[in-house]
Design brief:
Elements lengths: L1 H5 L5 E3 L1 E2 L10 E5 L6 E6 L3 H18 L4 H17 L1 H12 L3 H21 L7 E2 L6 E9 L2 E5 L7 H12 L3 E5 L5 H17 L6 E4 L3 H10 L5 E5 L2 H13 L3 E5 L4 E5 L5 H13 L9 E7 L3 H13 L19 H17 L2 E4 L3 E2 L10 E2 L2 E4 L15 E7 L2 H9 L3 E2 L1 E5 L3 H8 L8 E4 L11 E2 L2 E2 L6 E2 L8 E9 L14
The structure holds nicotinamide-adenine-dinucleotide (NAD).
């Protein structure tokens, strides 16, 4: 395939870059197309030795990079964004091939990387600190924001390019370097993207800002957690691994950004505009084959319109074309792996035992051309109660639980009654109900939308969740602050030494 060559991907690839591709000594990892099961390429993974060479190089790059003025750093990030823009088509196709999301979403993912680069360029001139009025005469008080260090970026399979960009573009303008450990499901996406950005950084003498280490969570990922050279670990993945990251980084007083599992609810009130709600639910629940952290998993629908909504959704689901994600007519591609399919089947078994009723879908599919091992399923709609243990759990697959509600208060109570807190949405034409949902006593999630779905955040808004979804914010607003250290400066320009709080000493 031409786009693989365009991105510098061969049959056999190195799994570590620190300014140059290293000769790795670890085991070979095979990357497979989830639509066909065929091997796309192999990666020689990093061992502890290459990990060490990577982190040392990234740290050395940071020590030089922090001296480059922030707006100049922004100019280089502009070039990174442009390099990605030029390769948008090839990168999007690679996301589709290796991760399995449809082409529109593959290109959308790359566009997110471009958007955050643009955002970061502007932000590089706006790393503002406050100035305060000192209580002492002849004194000035202000906050300065300084680079933090080398940021460890550990990413999930489902956004194999965008999440690295969310973190690294902001980290770069803040004066940090990054070491990236991608998911073992999507190593070639990381290699392709690194090959796109590295000429820009190498030309500036800063290749090691975009250091990459490919290896298993246990072999390589674990090392990040205890490595004192990384004052910040930005982790995107499951709640169970995220808990380990939180504890290990907390143990050594490192910061963490934790973007973990979601269990996102969409509330449909009686007065909802179904002409926009149904497409929003469809995109939210079937898009990326239900493998988005923001996927709509629970539909909390008013009992008066529930039958009608179920009927319309089942009809819409029946029209979804499932197939190879590279085919532009496909709306739903495969799951990422055989174990993801098994987890979906297991979840549906549990659902039935707990009292749920399947309204449509939920079967495995074998499609022509995918006999070698495509991981296709039929997206499922099921009637359920919010308290079922399986409904309280994130299953990373296209299962939409339909839960009936009596009124807004009932909806908010049920909506918040899950351990996770990432995204949420309400569809209503009543401004009081909409505002109530977004108020302090409404949705308890990091994101609460009105008349748009739970999925599809845009750069500019801070992205992240609450409760078991973790903490920290990425992408927009003032999330840059997490990649810097704050220093308070008090400067005495008088010829006296007054003490704060009026203390007289000696
Ligand atoms: P995962 O937790 O299995 O893996 C995530 C990353 O952690 C991978 O790179 C993996 O190799 C690494 N890892 C595994 N064990 C590790 C260890 N002991 N130490 C360090 N790193 C380790 O998650 P996944 O299956 O790749 O992704 C799906 C999950 O990610 C879902 O729960 C989804 O909701 C979540 N997610 C959340 C967000 C968000 O922004 N909240 C975004 C995308 C995905």
């Amino acid at each position: 395939m031409d786009f693989l060559r365009e991105l510098g991907i061969s049959k056999d690839n190195s799994g570590a870059y620190n300014g140059e591709w290293l000769a790795c000594k670890g085991e070979w990892l095979e990357s497979r197309d989830p639509a066909t099961g065929k091997v796309i390429g192999r990666i020689r993974q990093a061992t502890g030795e290459e990990y060490e060479a990577c982190v040392a190089a990234a740290h050395a790059a940071y020590l030089r990079w922090r001296e480059v003025p922030a707006p100049k750093r922004g100019e280089i990030v502009r070039k990174l964004g442009n390099a990605i823009r030029e390769k948008k088509d090839a990168l999007g196709r690679l996301v589709t091939l290796e991760m399995g999301k449809i082409l529109q979403e593959g290109w959308g993912e790359v566009q997110e990387a471009i958007d955050i680069a643009d955002f970061a360029v502007g932000q590089s001139r706006m790393l503002y600190g406050l100035s305060m009025h000192s209580e002492r005469p002849g004194h000035a008080m202000r906050e300065s924001w300084h680079p933090l260090g080398t940021v460890g970026v550990i990413t999930a399979f489902n956004f194999p390019m965008a999440v690295w960009a969310w973190n690294s573009m902001l980290a770069y303008i803040c004066g940090d370097s990054c070491v990236w450990k991608p998911s073992s499901e999507t190593p070639l996406c990381a290699i392709g993207l690194t090959n796109v950005v590295r000429p820009v950084l190498e030309a500036e003498g800063f290749g090691a800002l975009a250091t990459l280490v490919i290896g298993s969570g246990r072999e390589v990922g674990n090392r990040f957690l205890t490595d004192k050279r990384m004052p910040l670990i930005s982790f995107t993945g499951s709640t169970s691994v995220g808990k380990k990251v939180a504890m290990a980084s907390g143990e050594r007083f490192a910061r963490s950004i934790l973007e973990l599992g979601g269990n996102n609810g969409l509330v449909l009130l009686e007065d909802a505009d179904l002409s926009i709600a149904i497409p929003a639910i469809l995109f939210g629940s079937v898009g990326t084959a239900g493998q988005r952290c923001t996927t709509t998993r629970r539909l909390l629908v008013h009992e008066k319109i529930a039958d009608e909504v179920e009927k319309r959704l089942v009809r819409a689901y029946e029209q979804v074309k499932i197939g190879n994600p590279a085919d532009e007519k496909t709306l739903c591609g495969p799951l990422v792996s055989a174990s993801a399919v098994a987890e979906m089947m297991d979840a549906l078994e549990q659902l039935k035992k707990q009292g749920g009723k399947i309204l449509c879908g939920g079967e495995r599919l074998t499609l022509p051309g995918a006999e070698a091992g495509g991981h296709f399923v039929k997206p499922c709609i099921a009637r359920a109660e919010n308290h079922y243990p399986i409904v309280q759990t994130e299953t990373f697959a296209p299962i939409l639980y339909v839960i009936r509600i009596k009124n807004l208060e009932d909806a908010i109570q049920k909506h918040n009654d899950v351990p996770q807190g990432l995204t949420s949405a309400i569809f209503t034409m009543n401004v009081r109900h909409a505002e109530r949902f977004c108020a302090a006593t409404g949705s308890d999630c990091g994101i609460a939308n009105v008349n748009i779905g739970t999925s599809g955040a845009e750069i500019g808004g801070a992205f992240g969740g609450e409760k078991e979804t973790g903490w920290g914010r990425e992408s927009g607003s003032d999330s840059w602050k997490q990649y810097m250290r704050r220093q308070t400066n008090t400067v005495n320009w008088s010829n006296a030494l007054p003490l704060a709080q009026g203390i007289q000493f000696g």
